Amino acid sequence: MIPPGLRRRLRGNAAVWQLVEAAAGGAPLHACIISGASGTGKKTAARLLAQALVCTAAGETRPCGVCAACRKAEKDIHPDIITLYRDNKTGYSVDAVRAARQALYIMPNEAARKVYIFADGDFLLPAAQNAMLKMLEEPPAYALIILLCEDPASLLETVRSRCTEVRTERLPDSELRALLAERVDASPEEIDAAIRSAAGSAGAATAFLAGVPETERIAADCCAALAAADEAALYTAYFAAERLSRDELEAVFGMVAAVVGDALALRSGAQTPALPQFSEVAQRLRAAFSPERLKRIYDQARKAYDHTALYLTPGNLLAATVAELFGAVTARLK
Length: 334
What we know:
Layout: H1 4-7, H2 14-24, E1 31-35, H3 42-54, H4 68-74, E2 81-84, H5 94-104, E3 114-118, H6 126-137, E4 143-149, H7 157-160, E5 164-167, H8 173-183, H9 188-198, H10 202-209, H11 214-228, H12 231-239, H13 246-267, H14 279-288, H15 291-306, H16 314-330
Helix pairs in contact: 2-3, 3-4, 5-6, 8-9, 9-10, 11-12, 11-13, 11-14, 12-16, 13-14, 13-15, 15-16
């Protein structure tokens, strides 16, 4: 029997648990797609599935959560569970997929199985997916490849046809309330507010109860990266927003533009920023750039805000935004 504590991590996702139990019981599984909206447990599902395959307990109790292999998986340090994130601005490169394909045929280090998790499946461009086909068509018997994505339609049919597909679902309010009551120390009123804000997403509800709204935290990180002229930090900050809804993305872009506007106003003699919660980072932007440079950055931030609805996927929007914003930071002024 799988421990109840592990089962509760994926409340409302019976199809995912059926896949975990089948794989733990020895059912053949070499490639799967786990899709679902942001915050609905895709990464949790992938980790539990991988944990079930490396667990050393008897089949019916895998993952047990207590053996050495499970503890390593929990800490994300098991050598036979490899999580791969996109390696450039637009997605996974063909070279990265080819390297993973080559490493896949190296025998597992400790476990009987070896798991590769492509955590940014929405950013597998067609060329990278084509490079992946051999992994999916002729995987070694010990291998499992997991692709995580919000929209499986972004994957080629030749990829999807070779994978088992399951979807993580948004939680009903009753399930979400029970989960939050276990995870956080909050009043019933606070939990109700988190549920109203989350639209069934456990991740969003948890972030809401953490204090600072996630959109504000991401906006502050983006502005700090701009002030430091740190391209890598800017990518990290903005791509943290990929799990947000389009409305939340729009809010992040709007806040970034407003903070840069505050910095420009401070440069022009204003005494207090319009958004006091961002006053420190607005001062850093003010100190880092000339009025001309701030105006250019503001124009690009405002463009991202105005164009949010024009992009089909968050990834394309975020990649374009980061490139244009960093260009505004570094471009030579006339």
